[in-house]
Design goal:
Blueprint lengths: L1 E5 L7 H15 L3 E6 L5 H8 L6 E4 L18 H6 L5 E4 L14 E4 L13 H6 L1 H16 L4 E4 L2 H9 L5 E2 L6 H4 L11 E4 L11 H8 L6 E5 L4 H13 L4 E5 L3 H10 L2 E4 L8 H8 L3 E5 L4 H4 L6 E2 L2 H12 L7 H7 L5 H15 L1
Parallel strand pairs: 1-2, 1-4, 2-3, 4-5, 5-6, 6-7, 8-9, 8-11, 9-10, 11-12, 12-13
Length: 362
């Protein structure tokens, strides 16, 4: 069977990693795959991000309208991808756009967050008038999408599932895959030092809250290694501002190969995750497998990964107190339970669930 996979971007974060894992498992099952994306794919970059070759056909499609001229909510980000995918037996959207506007509904949608089902209309009188036809058509497409009972709706966490339910979208939960064997490292608590974080430096993702990380470690003897992808000029500008405000005990590591990321995680004591209402949090699972004690914001999907309230915080001041406790080893005893718990986020669990949904959709 030929399967089309839509992933707006190829590298960068958890959504792109899910697309890469899905493509890999489909090829392993003997299917041919076409990847529809807006990114020009570099073989070297793909190997650096995922540690292997991209073994599928690639169709690069740019946005229909210039982003500088049209706000994101007014662009048909995906229509061209869908229309060009008409020969595919099954079409999977693994990175739904900010507003789900489909001329041809996909067979399966994997939600990494909740799209905007209520369209915003320009405040300006002239702009409002100019976009009236667009908004009317867009609302029709959104209603058609939500009402389509044949689409297999998948959420990446119970948190995302609950948010979708508020929009009358019924979704099943299939957690993103983490190759736990590749990330596992001995714990050796007494040999580990310092703090580490892993989140892309994206200004459009303010919930990552890198600024909180800087405040949490400011004035401490323990150092923080802040890792993340930095792939374009806006992300570079954002990272530059973070560098300017960072204390001397913070070191930034960008676009590191997977093996470097794993090596750094294997040497660190604490994994600090400050994102607010993160839909899931694959990096948290990876850090636990690598032997780090996680300290995460008490919201969103991370609650499903880190069930212990002692390892979650709501404010910077609370995080500072708990960071001291984690560094002193007061919560080392949670590690066996955490490592058992993350078995539910394994590649095998994801593969079994996704293949079942894909074949049902076909």
């Amino acid at each position: 069977m030929h399967i089309g996979v839509v992933s707006t971007h190829v590298a960068g974060g958890g959504a792109e990693d899910v697309a890469a894992k899905t493509i890999k498992l489909l090829i392993e099952e003997g299917h041919s795959v076409t990847l529809y994306t807006r990114d020009s794919v570099s073989v070297e970059d793909y190997r650096r991000f995922y540690g292997e070759e991209l073994k599928c056909s690639i169709a690069v499609r740019k946005a229909l309208f210039d982003a500088k001229l049209f706000p994101t909510r007014y662009r048909f980000l995906t229509n061209e991808l869908w229309l060009k995918g008409s020969r595919d037996g099954v079409l999977l959207d693994l990175s739904p756009s900010i507003v789900p506007l489909y001329l041809r509904n996909p067979k399966l949608v994997y939600f990494h967050n909740v799209p905007k089902f209520d369209l915003s209309i320009a405040n300006s009188g002239l702009m409002k008038l100019a976009f009236c036809p667009y908004n009317a058509f867009a609302r029709y497409l959104v209603r058609k999408f939500v009402a389509d009972e044949h689409i297999h709706m998948i959420a990446n966490s119970r948190f995302t599932q609950a948010r979708l339910a508020r929009c009358h979208v019924k979704a099943r939960v299939i957690y993103p895959p983490v190759d736990l064997d590749q990330w596992r490292r001995p714990m050796h608590h007494n040999q580990r030092r310092g703090i580490v974080s892993l989140a892309r430096f994206a200004p459009q993702d303010p919930q990552k809250r890198h600024d909180w990380q800087l405040e949490i470690v400011r004035g401490r003897k323990d150092d923080l290694i802040a890792m993340g992808n930095c792939l374009n000029s806006s992300q570079e500008a954002h990272l530059s501002k973070l560098r300017e405000n960072a204390p001397s005990n913070v070191r930034f590591v960008t676009n590191a190969p997977l093996e470097t990321v794993r090596d750094i995680l294997s040497r660190r004591k604490v994994f600090l995750h400050t994102a607010f209402e993160e839909p899931f949090g694959m990096s948290i699972v990876q850090s636990i497998a690598a032997g780090c004690i996680p300290l995460v914001h008490d919201s969103g999907g991370p609650r499903e990964i880190v069930p212990m309230r002692e390892l979650r915080f709501k404010t910077v001041s609370e995080a500072k107190i708990k960071l001291d406790q984690v560094l002193r080893g007061e919560y080392d005893h949670f590690m066996p339970a955490l490592r058992d718990h993350i078995e539910g986020f394994s590649t095998k669990t994801f593969k079994d669930g996704m293949l079942r949904e894909i074949f049902d959709a076909a």
